Amino acid sequence: MIISEFKKLSEIQTEFNTKFSNLKIEFYTSAHEVNKPSAASHLIPIDKTIAEVRTVHSEGDISINGHLKVSTFEKEFSEKFGLNVQVFRKSGDVWLQTTKTDDWTLSEQNERSSKFSNSIK
């Protein structure tokens, strides 16, 4: 995924969700603590461009490889680009922050959501 100044947060969300249909990412003004959720009051509107919200102004590529742990993915966004992200997993009709399962890979999160969704149908 290419990160550039003029890309909107909504575009990043769409690219991520295309790869992991049962996951989404949200952007926050501050990082969350380990095993703690991000505060809704710190949520950044997705119509903003990356340039408007980040603290590190470098462009580049970030891997959205399914083998990445959620914690690693979130940390890379913060360190490389100054963007605080939180991964969410769909559970039925609800989106859950993956705070307690940040040690799972993105693929594990996506598969877990898919299995749960199929079991309630």
Spatial extent as radius of gyration? 14 Å
Largest sheet: 3 strands, antiparallel
Overall number of structural domains:
1
Helix and strand content put the structural class at alpha+beta
Q: Mean of residue pLDDT?
A: 89
What percentage of the residues does DSSP assign to strands (E)? 15-25%
The percent range for helix content is 25-40%
Give unreliable regions as ranges.
Answer: none
Query: Tell me, what's the shape?
Result: globular
Which keywords apply here?
single chain, 121 residues, alpha+beta, 3-stranded antiparallel β-sheet, two-stranded antiparallel sheet, 4 helices, globular
Tell me the layout of helices and strands.
Blueprint: E1 2-3, H1 9-19, E2 23-28, H2 50-53, E3 60-61, H3 70-81, E4 84-91, E5 94-97, H4 106-119
Antiparallel strand pairs: 1-3, 2-4, 4-5
Q: If you had to describe this structure to a student in words, what would you say it looks like?
A:
With 121 residues, the chain is α+β, with helices and mostly antiparallel strands. It has one domain (2-119). It is 34% helix and 18% strand. The chain is built from 4 helices and 5 strands; from the N terminus they run E-H-E-H-E-H-E-E-H. The protein has helices at residues 9-19, 50-53, 70-81, 106-119; strands at 2-3, 23-28, 60-61, 84-91, 94-97. The strands form 2 sheets. The chain has a 3-stranded antiparallel β-sheet. Strands 1-3 form a two-stranded antiparallel sheet. The longest helix is centred in the last third of the chain and has 14 residues, at 106-119.
